[in-house]
Specification:
There is one protein chain. The protein is 11% helix and 44% strand. It is mainly β. Strand 3 and strand 4 form a beta hairpin. The longest helix is centred in the C-terminal third of the chain and has 6 residues. The protein is elongated and about 60 Å long. It starts with a strand and ends with a helix.
Amino acid sequence: MLKPFLEIGEIVTTHGVMGEVKIYPWCDEPEVLCELPRLYLADGAQPRDILQARVHKNMCLVLLEGVEGMDAARRLVGRTVWAARADLQLEPGRYFVQDILGCEVRNADTGRVYGRVVKVDHPAANDVYTIEDAQGKQFLFPAVAEFLDTLCPEEQYILVRPIPGMFEEQENGDQ
C-alpha cells in the first residue's frame, strides 16, 4: 500500500521577519513543492495552507498559514514537511522514491529474493538502487530497462533480471 503522505522537504532556516521559512526540497524540482496548496508539519497532521511560495537558489521560500513572524518561523527550523499524495501528480507507471524504499527485490524468473531496497541514488542518467540482503550485505543495482522487469510498490516488490555477477557474492555463498 502506498503512503498517503510523503516527506517532501526540510525547513532549514527562516527568511526575513514576516514568518517565511526556507525549505530544502526533496523532490526533483523545487517548483513541485511551491505549487502545492498545503504542507503538513507531521505525517498527515498539522496541515498549513501555503499562502505564498517561490523558488530561490534551488530552495523554496514559503509563507505558511498561522506562521506569523520570525519567532514562529524559527520554531519550525529542522522540521520535515509532508505533502498529501493526492496533491502531487505523477505520470502512470512512475513512482516516488519513498514508494520504492523497502520493496523486496526478487528474480523475475526464479522468484529468488535478493533483499530490500534501502537507498535510491541518481548519480547519472538512471537510478541506482542499494539492495540489502538478510545478512546486511549491500549490492548496487542499476535501475535500467535491461535489468528491471516489474515495479510494484503497491504490493512492495520489484522483479529483476540480473546478469551473472550482479549478486555474485550472494550467489556464491549459496553453493
